[in-house]
């Protein structure tokens, strides 16, 4: 089929049957309109332009999507909608994200100034520091105190922090390399930590069966961009034909991020599915069905809080991210789980014959290079 009247582009001629058709009115403005409503086929207009997203909105008052949304309002909401219509999102909207590949890089700790191969203390002392500071969740000051009072090893608390940041740089690469496959269903959430007195967010994702902490990402907002970065890493090791389902709370950043990720996936790869568990009670069927996965990520959040609470906040992003990375290493490779028959989520053969936890930390650092 092709246009039959030159620049007017209002008449279409079929090459097969030679029939003439009038072009749909919405295609007459195809150069101006970029997207169309999937419910009523009206052109979407550019409603808002933000830094990383352009929001397109359907302005058709008779759009089935809008009429259906209005029908679901209760009497009080319908009365409020007449006076304050901006309180309700009734019209269909489409978000066009402007993220570039460079914006979605999964970051790790900064390259340290301390070379762990040239430190003055032995590797066994380094392993003890990581064992107390990370695995046993003791603050840096108390770790230095224990080493001095119990083992007669004199190190400052700043040395503990320096060694931890240097180890985290290598452990991040180890985590990415040995994470292994993930299950079909994963749960994600964000929790809070303090950096220089301000709240920051740590996005965590956990695989539902093997309990692998598949993604961790530190951000200063709960917007779509950090959610995309965290979810992209969470499904990085999935098989191409694997049907992935992500469970989250009601944060709209997750469905928006999954929409962006599905747009970028090849057509032959299954779409990522998403389900939201809202609130603390099962007020809808979806929340009731997937509540167990939300409880799984909430349990991970409590474990994470136990390990970062002794730090009482952080003075830098890199210090906070370093402890997050070391926690992930401990959780995946060193911490046995009762539900896994006292095995770790990720099985590393090289660690099985090492009896001490400080020895396992040293082995992980040596394998990380």
How would you describe this structure to a colleague?
With 369 residues, the chain is of the alpha+beta class. Among the domains are: 1-32, no CATH class; 36-98, no CATH class; 181-333, Ribonuclease H-like superfamily/Ribonuclease H (Nucleotidyltransferase, domain 5). It is built from 12 helices and 11 strands. The strands form 3 sheets. It has a 5-stranded mixed β-sheet, sandwiched between helices. Strands 1-2-3 form a 3-stranded antiparallel β-sheet, with no helix packed on it. Strands 4-5-6 form a 3-stranded antiparallel β-sheet, with no helix packed on it. Strand 8 (198-207) and strand 9 form a beta hairpin. The longest helix is centred in the middle third of the chain and has 22 residues, at 157-178. It is elongated and about 90 Å long.
Instruction: Label the structural class.
Output: alpha+beta
Question: SSE order in H/E notation?
Answer: EEEEEHHEHHHEEEHEHEHHHHH
CATH top-level class of the domain at 181-333 = Alpha Beta
Question: What is the mean predicted local confidence, pLDDT?
Answer: 90
CATH superfamily of the domain at 181-333: Ribonuclease H-like superfamily/Ribonuclease H
Beta-strand fraction estimate:
15-25%
Low-confidence stretches: 26-31
Per CATH, the architecture of the domain at 181-333 is 2-Layer Sandwich
Shape: elongated
In DSSP terms, counting alpha (H) and pi (I) runs of 4 or more, how many helices?
Answer: 12
* Cross-sheet strand order for the largest sheet: 9-8-7-10-11
Task: Evaluate the radius of gyration.
Answer: 26 Å
Oligomer: single chain
Q: How many β-strand stretches?
A: 11
Fraction of residues in helices? 25-40%
From the N-terminal CA to the C-terminal CA, the straight-line distance is 61 Å
The biggest beta sheet is recorded as: 5 strands, mixed
The CATH topology of the domain at 181-333 is given as Nucleotidyltransferase, domain 5
